[in-house]
Write a structure and sequence with these properties.
Length: about 120
């Protein structure tokens, strides 16, 4: 009986290890947000089109983080973008080295801009 359980666990681990990693979409000019998809797996959903660069997409994801009060992950042209209360980073893959997108001063200006928009709207 125990052997069957261990075999089942080993098979499940082997199958999950073979599952392809989620790739960031490469569509030109589209800013994506990572969200729960079918069967509880992560998926990307577009949040805006005609985005000129990665920094603009990162700024839009920062706006989502400010609205929702929790970290947000997204993508732009094949790059992952991670937005946390501490920093905004970009990486070539889900497990790749992350690099900061904005300096703390730049990020403060983005946050001030969103605060001004909320007051005006």
């Amino acid at each position: 009986m125990r052997r069957r359980v261990w075999r089942g666990l080993a098979l499940a681990l082997a199958v999950s290890a073979c599952a392809p990693a989620l790739e960031a979409p490469r569509n030109a000019g589209v800013c994506w947000r990572m969200a729960p998809g079918m069967n509880g797996r992560q998926d990307f959903r577009p949040i805006s089109n005609s985005v000129e660069n990665l920094e603009t997409c990162a700024g839009q994801l920062e706006g989502l983080r400010l609205q929702q009060g929790q970290p947000v992950a997204g993508a732009f042209q094949g790059r992952y973008i991670y937005v946390t209360p501490e920093e905004i980073t970009v990486a070539a893959g889900a497990r790749a080295q992350r690099y900061r997108v904005f300096t703390p001063e730049q990020r403060a200006r983005i946050q001030a801009g969103y605060a001004a928009l909320r007051k005006g709207g």
